[in-house]
Amino acid sequence: MRFLSNWLRPFSGAEPNYWEGYPESRLKDVILFLTDRCNMRCDHCMFWERIDDPGDEMTREQLGRLASTTPSLRTVAMTGGEPFLRNDVADIVENFFRDNQTHNVQVNTNGLLMERMRALVESDLAAKYQKFLSFQVSIDGLAETHDRVRRLPGSFTKITRNLKELVKLAEQHPYFRVVVLTNVNKGNYHEIDPLARILWDEVGVQHAYDLVRGASFSAWGIPEDVYQPDDPRDCGLPPREELDGIVETIRSINRREGGHFDQFVEQLQIQTDLYLGKPTPFKCLSAGRTIGVIYSDGSVAACEFTTPFAHLRDYDYDLGRLWASPEAEARRARITGCVCTHTCFVLTSLQEMQERKAAAAAV
Ligand code: SF4
Ligand code: SF4
Question: Atom of ligand 1 at shortest distance to CA of 44?
Answer without folding.
Answer: 1
